[in-house]
Amino acid sequence: MGRVVEGTGGQRSGVGAGERETTNAMLRSVIDGIADLVYAKDAEGRYLLVNLAAADASGLRPDQILGHTDADLLPGPAAASLRAADRRVIASGLPHRSREEPVTPDGPRVYQALKAPTRDAAGRVAGVVGVSRDVTEEEQAQAARRRLLGRVHDIQEEERGRVAVGLHDGPLQGLATLGFKLARAKELLADGQTRPAMAVLGACEADVAGEVAALRRTMHDLRPLVLDQQGLAAALEDQAEAVRARAGLAACRLTMRLEGGRLDPAVEIALYRVAQQALANVADHAGATEVEVRLEQAPAGDVVLAVADDGCGFDPASVAGGGGGFQFGLTVMAERVEALGGRLTVRARDEGGTVVEARIPGPTATPAAPEGRPA
Amino acid sequence: MTRLPPRPRVLLADDHTRLREALRDLLEETGFEVVGESGDGADAVAMARQLEPDIVVIDLRMPVLNGLDATRLIKDGRSATQVVVLSAFESPELERQAREAGAFAYLDKGTMARRVHRVLLGAAVQAVLATNLGPQGQEPEAG
C-alpha cells in the first residue's frame, strides 16, 4: 500500500509522531476500504498514493506503481489521455470530472473520474488527487436496458398490429356484413316478403352469435380474464383444451402441483404467455399427438412450467438463430422468464419431441390466496 | 330505394366471402345485377375486362393485387366502368389516392346500406353517360 501524505492539520496542532502514525494508519484503512480507485500524483504525474482497489485494477502491486507515472505503466495513448486530464486540473486549479476508458488486464473498462488539485503549504498546485469509479457494468446494464426497452416497444407494436388485423378481418367485416343483411331484410319486409325477410333475420341472429364468439376469442388472446380471477392453473386448463381442440391432439394432459398458493401476478402472466407460445408452437410446428403441461412449485421453491410434446422435435439451428417466427417466439419467451430472474430451456426428449421448461426462482407465492385454484 | 331499369351490371371484388355474399344479395334485391364476384385484385381486373360491368365494387386490402392498383388497371382497360371502393379504412388520404386512381367514390364499410345504394345509382348513371358521351369526371363529394 502507498504512503498516505501526512496531513498538515496534525502538524499545525502540534500532534506528536505517534499520534500522526495512528492517524495515518486509520486513513490508510479508510482509503483501502473504498471500492473506488483512489490515488494521488505529484505535478509531474508520479504516483504518491494508490489504494488497494487502484492497485487491483492495474494488476500491479502498490510498490510497482508508487513513484512511477502513467507513461511507465500504461500503453501510450491511455497514458497520454490520463496525463491530459491531470494537466487540465493542474492548469486550472479546479476539480474536473472525466470519463476514462483504459484497457486493464481484465479488458476495456469505463471509469468516471473526479480529479482535484492538491496544494503545498504556500497554496501552489502540487499535484492531483483522484477518485475513479468503475462504471463498466452499470453502463452495460443501461445499454441492455435500452435494448430491452426497444424490444418491448417493438413487440408491443407487433402485437397491436396483429390485433388491428384481427379486428379488421373479424368483427369489422362481420358487422359490415350484418348491416347489408339487415338492409336486405328491410327491403324484403317493405315488399311484403315476410318469410324471406325472417330467414335473413335468422341468419343475422346467427351472425351476431358468431361475432360475439370471435370477439370473445380476441379478448381471451389479449388477456384471459380467468387468469386474473382464478389463477394460472385454471387459465392453463382453458388454454390446453383450446389447443387440443385446435390442433386435433389426442390428449393435452395437465399436472399441477402448486403447494405455495397463488403465484405472484407477474409470474402468473409470464408463465401463461410461455405456455401460450409453447402450445402455439406445438400446434403449428410439432405435428404432435400428445402434450403434457406441468406446473409445479414446492413451498418457497422454484416455480417450474414445462410443456412437453411427442412431435417431430426441433432443429437446433432454428433455436440458434435461423428459425423465423419460431425463433422469435422462443426469444420472447426467454426474455419474459429472464426478466423475472428465471431461465428458459428448450431440449429434445430422448423418446422424441420437445420440452420447453421455464424455471422461476421462488418464493413467489402470495400469502393471501389459500390454494392454487380458488373456486 | 329507387330502382334503376335496366339493371346496372355490377362486379364485386372482396376477399371477405360472407360480406361479398351479403352485398350481392342486397344489390340483387335492390335492382342491380351482380355479374361476377372475385376474391382478389388481379382476378377482379381480369373479370372486369371480360365482363365489362357498369360498376366494380372493390375492397382495398386484397390478396395478389390491392384495390388501388386494381382500380387503375380497371380504368385503364375501360374508362366507362365506374369503380366504387368499399374499404374497412376510414381515411381521407386513402380516399384521395382512390380518387386519383380513378375511383368514382370511396365508401367505408360502416356506410349505411342506403348510402351505398345511392352511390351505386350515381355510378350507374355515370357509367351510362361515360359509355355514350365519354368520361365526364368523377362523382362530386357524395353526401
Description:
The complex is a heterodimer of chains A (375) and B (143). Chain A has 375 residues and is an alpha+beta fold. Chain A has helices at residues 8-12, 17-33, 52-58, 62-65, 70-73, 76-92, 136-190, 194-222, 225-230, 232-247, 265-286, 316-322, 324-339; strands spanning 37-42, 47-50, 96-100, 103-104, 107-108, 111-119, 125-134, 251-258, 290-297, 303-309, 343-348, 354-360. Chain A is elongated, with a radius of gyration of 34 Å. Chain A has 3 domains: 8-134, PAS domain (Beta-Lactamase, 2-Layer Sandwich), CATH 3.30.450; 136-222; 229-375, 2-Layer Sandwich (Heat Shock Protein 90), CATH 3.30.565.10. In chain A, strand 6 and strand 7 form a beta hairpin. Chain A has 13 helices and 12 strands. The model of chain A is unreliable at 1-11, 320-324 and 367-375 (pLDDT under 50). Chain B has a single domain (9-133), classed as Rossmann fold (3-Layer(aba) Sandwich). A 5-stranded parallel beta sheet of chain B has the order 2-1-3-4-5, with helices on both faces. Chain B starts with 8 loop residues before the first strand and ends in a 10-residue tail after the last helix.
| CATH architecture classification of chain B | 3-Layer(aba) Sandwich
Full CATH superfamily name of the largest domain in chain A: Histidine kinase-like ATPase, C-terminal domain
CATH architecture of the largest domain in chain A: 2-Layer Sandwich
Percentage of helical residues of chain B? 40-55%
Largest sheet descriptor of chain B? 5 strands, parallel
Gross morphology of chain B is globular
Enter the CATH topology name of chain B: Rossmann fold
The average pLDDT score of chain B comes to: 89
Which outline of chain A best applies?
Answer: elongated
**Spatial sequence of strands, sheet with the most strands of chain B:** 2-1-3-4-5
What is the domain total for the residues of chain A?
3
Total DSSP E strands of chain B: 5
